[in-house]
Specification:
Structural class: alpha+beta
Strand order of the largest sheet: 1-7-6-5
Helix content: 25-40%
Number of helices: 10
Strand content: 15-25%
Distance between the termini: 46 Å
Largest sheet: 4 strands, mixed
Shape: globular
Number of strands: 13
Length: 269
């Protein structure tokens, strides 16, 4: 097929054989694994594993990041005992510290550092200097690909990156685990909730939280909803509807029927 296409281009004076292949090696591998999966020789988990590794070069951090509205953060202006309680109750071991407003992140507090400091202070919360305990925050642009971010994590020995836009405003957060989950699927530990925001109903429909990413939904249900113009399910509906729908409105897109069940202000939940 590639030979035919190259020959056809040469008729019009275009030689693409030197610059690039019609199909990249990644595309050939994707096609091969999809073919074997359709024939039943490769199961879904194995297909997703291989495709996840191949997709790292094509996915940007903004597509998988935890949005800034959902980041669990510690306010340095809060009482010290309240900060400690919040940190110990959290399911996360690394929490951003900010002062005055969430855009002003001054560091990342690690739970192990906090527990060590508490032990040394014999449990005295007022003796804890959170700013001194915090590790320097690591910022990354939203356009970074997952492969580039994974390489940066290994090079810098970091586990958490704060994602910023071109103006330096905080957009979200990406962890090393988030990137690994793009390859191997969800990694649930004892603190993770098994609920991913996708709830099958008795009538065959699905209740889906608006902030569920299209990639996660496609992967869980083996669907092929487009994710080029939107990251989340709510974003896909808003993009295709060209408006912010009201509760009860129903739309048909991409072979599926979407019904809006809940909305909070301008957010489809």
């Amino acid at each position: 097929i590639q030979l035919i296409v190259r020959t056809a281009f040469k008729v019009f004076g275009l030689d693409i054989s030197k610059d690039s292949a019609v199909f990249t090696a990644q595309e050939e591998l994707r096609g091969a694994i999809d073919l074997h999966h359709s024939e039943g020789r490769v199961d879904k988990d194995a297909r997703d594993l291989i495709r996840g590794a191949l997709d790292l070069e094509d996915i940007r951090t903004e597509e998988i990041m935890v949005h800034r509205k959902s980041i669990e953060m510690l306010d340095l202006d809060s009482p010290k005992d309240a900060i400690i309680r919040q940190a110990l109750k959290s399911a996360h071991t690394r929490l951003p510290l900010y002062r005055e407003n969430p855009d002003n992140v001054i560091g990342i507090l690690h739970a192990k550092d906090l527990l060590r400091a508490l032990w040394d202070a014999e449990g005295d919360a007022n003796a804890i200097d959170f700013e001194a305990l915090a590790r320097d925050p690591y910022f990354a642009p939203e356009t970074t690909t997952l492969q580039e971010q994974l390489d940066a994590f290994k090079r810098k020995q970091e586990h958490v990156a704060l994602i910023v836009d071109e103006y330096g405003a905080l957009m979200g957060l990406v962890t090393l685990e988030d990137i690994l989950e793009e390859i191997v699927g969800e990694i649930e530990d004892e603190h993770d909730s098994p609920v991913l925001g996708v709830r099958p109903q008795g009538d065959g429909s699905l209740n889906v939280d608006g902030d569920v990413t299209i990639r996660d939904l496609n992967r869980a249900m083996d669907w092929n909803l487009p994710d080029a113009e939107a990251v989340t399910v709510a974003g896909l509906v808003i993009h295709d509807a060209q408006s912010i729908p009201d509760v009860g409105q129903t739309f048909s897109f991409h072979g599926f029927r979407f019904k809006i069940l809940r909305r909070r202000r301008n957010q489809i939940t």
